[in-house]
Amino acid sequence: ARRIVRSGDLAGSNSNEEEEVEENPDDYNDNNSSSTEEDGATNDVDITEHTKAVVFKGISKPKHNFIHDLTSLQMGHRMVPSFSQRQCGSVDLVRRLEPAYKLSGHEGRVNSLHFNLSGSKIASASEDLNIRVWEWTKKRKMLQFDSGHKKEVLQSKFMPGDLLITSCSRDGQVRLAELSVTGALRSTKKLGQHKGPAHKMSLLPDCPYVVLSAGEDGQVLSVDIREQKPDKILLLKNEKDKKIPIYSIHSSPSNGNWFCTSGRDQFVRIFDRRFLRSDRRGPGGQVVRYCPENLKDNDEFKAYITCAVFSEDGREVIGSYNDEDIYLFNTYDPEGSPHIHRYQGHRNRATVKGVNFYGPNSEYVISGSDCGNIFIWDKQTEGLVKLMPGDDNGVVNVLEAHPTLPVLATSGLDDEVKLWMPLQVTAGPGHCWQREQKEYMLKTVQRNLNDRETQRNSEPDPLDGEMLWVLWRHISHIRRTERRRREATAAAARGEEEAVGDADTSEEEESDGEDGP
Q1: Where are the beta strands (DSSP E) in 402-450?
Q2: Partners of 7 in the beta sheet?
């Protein structure tokens, strides 16, 4: 039977699960260790115990053996799942993820990353209004072009064939860039317009010409690049007939008719494109909507969702709630069913963060955090598999997994793209990486939980946290302006030095000429 995690469970035991949990005697699991509270923090026993329960949850036992799989591969045996899929989903490789290198060049925060279907290229979109195409394996930029947007670009995506790139922006536009076979930009044009920022787009798995876009105007547009105008297929409203700003939209990888939305209310909604109504009598085409019991009618906490995505098989959907946790629902459960899993320890308050599945069969859940770390949870056990610093400026917003390799691309408030690969050395004499990782997890999770409780008690409405988002943007703009001013000053100084050097050289040559015979 499937284990149900109810809203009242802060961090329950996994002893009743059918899923086998890995018991590694070498793992650090010191439940008698001292508290990780920092100086000046409140000594809260409940939060300390909650922290330990989150950090010391078990991890699923490995299902495949590398040596056995490699032998089968060399002997030509057919494996399902394939050898590469088995290794990409290996907990050992996930635990060994570490920064491999960075792709630098943007002059602003990188808001979006997207691999093409083959995984050979990455498209990155930034608040500098540019879109870059990277050949990431060679660490080089293939193309950079002006998107045509008037405000920061929030997302960009390759369409099948790699010669078309769609984008959406804070200016509400949905645009299309056409590339030549040589990789140069041919043209850009506007496909659609929202009456407010357009945060996300979604490609349809069974139609290479259509993209869905969602905006803060509550509209979902179906944009066919072969047509002159987009179709307005949905206007999302609540029970009080008020528009709901939409922050994310995602199509089911296994069913192109289904898509889910999340926004400024507490529900993850799933729609069927075939049954959307053009009238205004409620959200036609809505298949089901989900919300954790503890967030449905909570007058003390106004919940909303920054991102929601389907799993690879479309049977599950996860939603990341503002300054709350990440919840997983079964898409075949009826409306009103409780969440299946709850992933805890991170913070999602300062920015509009993404959440995603990781692994060929969605074995893991990954998210950024206000603390600047990347969290990776075991989907089945809710155990924290890996915690790693991901952003120098403190917030990780975007996480994009490679389609076939154990590679992760991330970005945040920094103006660069980071690539993560399983390169960390986890063995050797005197190497205490497991203990160090657990200690770092304890310290980070407890700080996040303490900060959440402190700010909830001091702020009656957590939506005021959006002011922090505005402040981040302002600070980022000031930092870039100062950097450009310093670069311009340094360039001018170098130019003056070169001019003086040239002048001195000319004078010496003239002097030599006068003194000669």
Answers
A1: 408-412, 416-422
A2: none
463, two tokens: 């939506």
What percent of the chain clears pLDDT 70, i.e. is strictly above it?
78
Could you please report the per-residue DSSP string of 318-356? EEEETTS-EEEEETTSPTTPPPSEEE-S----SS---EE
Separation between Cα atoms, residue 393 and residue 261, nearest integer Å: 29
Is the pLDDT assigned to residue 401 strictly greater than 50?
Answer: yes
The residues that bridge with 452 in the sheet, in sequence order, are: none
Reported pTM? 0.82
What mean pLDDT do residues 341-353 have?
90
- Per-residue pLDDT, 17: 39
User: Which residues of 216-363 form beta strands (DSSP E)?
Assistant: 219-224, 231-235, 246-252, 255-263, 268-272, 286-290, 305-310, 316-321, 326-330, 341-343, 355-358
How far apart are the C-alpha atoms of 419 and 121, rounded to whole Å?
A: 12
Coil, strand or helix at 107? coil
DSSP state of 29: -
- Beta pairing, strands 207-215 & 355-358: unpaired
Q: Please give the radius of gyration of the chain, using alpha carbons only, rounded to the nearest integer.
A: 25
Q: Would you say residue 98 has pLDDT above 50? A: yes
Q: Give strand ranges (E) for 372-500.
A: 373-378, 384-389, 396-401, 408-412, 416-422
Rounded-to-integer distance, Cα 106 and Cα 104, Å:
6
Tokens 């105007």 sit on residue:
217
CA pair distance 393, 240, nearest whole angstrom: 40
Helices 45-55, 433-458: inter-axial angle, 10-degree rounding = 140
| Cβ neighbours around 29 below 10 Å, total | 16
Q: Which residues pair with 290 in a beta bridge?
A: 268
The tokens describing 152, both together, are 């920061």
Cα–Cα distance, 86 to 390 (Å, whole number): 26
Q: Exposed/middle/buried for 92, CB within 10 Å: 0-12, 13-18, 19+?
A: exposed
Q: How much is the pLDDT for 125?
A: 96
Give the Cα separation of 164 and 32 in Å (integer). Answer: 56
Distance CA 245, CA 223 (A): 19
Q: For tokens 């700080």, name the residue.
A: 447
pLDDT over 50 (residue 471): yes
Task: Measure Cα distances from 485 to 413, 478, 490, 491 in Å.
Answer: 20, 11, 9, 10
Tokens of 102: 């960075």
**Which residue in this structure is represented by tokens 């002011």?**
467
1-26 confidence digits (pLDDT tens): 433 333 344 333 343 334 445 544 34
**Mean pLDDT lowest for which of 193-202, 245-254, 393-402?**
393-402
DSSP tag of 373: E
Q: What confidence tens digit (pLDDT) does each residue in 161-205 have?
A: 999 999 999 999 999 999 999 889 999 999 999 999 999 999 999
Strand partners, 179: 185
Could you tell me which residue, 464 or 68, shows the higher pLDDT?
Answer: 68
3-class DSSP state for residue 366?
A: strand
